[in-house]
Amino acid sequence: MCMLRVLTRPAGSHNGKLDGETVNACMIVVKFYSLYRGISADDMNSSILDRVAFNYTEGDCRIVTVPFFKDGCDLELPSELRDCLLDALHLQYVIDTKTGEVKEDDLVAMETRLRKLLILHQDRLKSMSAPVDDSREKFLSQIADRVMDMDTIFQM
Hints:
Elements: H1 2-8, H2 25-34, H3 41-54, H4 79-97, H5 104-120, H6 122-128, H7 132-155
């Protein structure tokens, strides 16, 4: 999903210059994903809460969450796309751990394969994604709630 968003992002619209015009855009997303290898979403949330709560002395400490997938959506990926993503993660693992040789041709071939399959299955991926307006609305609502909580805390 993130790779497809990067690939369909207008050229030059991202501060980090990561869009479909970036030669190795998909593998850059794989590299970012691999930074969190071995960390579950629950562990990540717990870690964030621990750090925020340490500096938060009053009130309820809650993480602002934004829906990524549609509620009740079937999250099964087409098998050829799933297999390709797993191959990309394995390739990045080999790079990160230096447990094998990865040639430039291997990276180019993986990037080409990823792009082809992401475009081929873009309708399926888009059907899984929560609407941007819904995500924005939920985000703003939660931020407003946190601001109101802060107002209450500081009035005490």
